[in-house]
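How a chain folds remains the central question behind the approach discussed here. The record that follows shows the chain in one-letter code together with its fold in token form:
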Amino acid sequence: MRAAKILAVLLLLAIACPLGGCAMPHQPEHRAYVISMGVDINDNSDCVVSIQIPSITGSSGGADGGGGADSYVVSSATAHTFVEALVLLQATTPRELDYKQMVSFVASQKAASSPVFPQIVTELMHTYEIFHSPQLIVCAGEAAAFLESQRPEIGTRLSSSVSAMLNNYQSQGYIPLANLSRAHYLSQSVYHDPVAIYAATPDQEHYRNVAPDNLGESYPGSLPHTGLARNEYMGAALLQNGVMVGTLNGTQTQILNLLLETTDEMPYFVGEKNVLLERIGGAQLSAILAPEGVTLRVDIRLAAKPLTNAPNPEALREKFLGDLNGLITTCQALKTDPFGFALRAAAQFATVPEWVAFSWRERYAQAALDLQVHIEM
């Protein structure tokens, strides 16, 4: 009887192990879990794909390595197309590549500004099942160098470190929410344009690598600081039809996040006086269509909590109004609409062909602005 019971248990285990992922091909040590991927376009117009994975020779036994800088390795492959480079990476990596836990997809500014970039994103989304949608990041220099500079804090896994860091910057509003899947979807849409996180390392060449007087007006690569974080994240990359066409600085990105209701508050400076601006209710955005042209209307209410000496209320309102105007006119000049004005305008048309024939981008670029800012101290 006892022998029969033992045999039954062994049979159950033999059946349960393959179903539960215990079969040899599915063991974690047989896979290389990609944490971040980077894409560059070289001088020969070839695609250079880099991946950051836990080092196979690292001291940690976990799927995501340990906390040491030597626990991670960056591998690259160059080919004429993105897919060919991915295949080459798989063929030259000693473990099966697994992209399902990828936390960030980093494109160099050169790659993101290339007309082939939308196809690269589409191929990535269609070729591999990315269940945990990574964040889309555009870096000012080379993506491979950006990944090399990406290191975990002491005692943490790199995937957790990157995710916590991006969540922290996003909660402050200095970078946008930029899920790769959402950016891919909006790139196919005629109603809304996506944005990406803008980043750099301090030694990467960038046309705005000059520290401004105001932190919020900064761009990555220009922040005077030292500490654990080598890579800098500040602002947003603007995309039109999936191709990068421009950037927003930190303050412009904070205001964009308030309008999109992805954040509720932002620190703000008026001269040397600092306040915390909190959005009251939702921002009201609308597109008014008239025979004489289009008017973009924004109505936003804010509560200002002084963090130093209180600034003059009217000076505060005028400065915020000027920054809001600068944000929208910057996007108008680039004919990119990250606000969703197009969606509000399209609701006034009976059919999609009528909406397409309206030539929204051209009318949006020439639209008048009606901006209403209310601030309570």
Observations:
- Residues 90 and 168 are 33 Å apart (CA to CA).
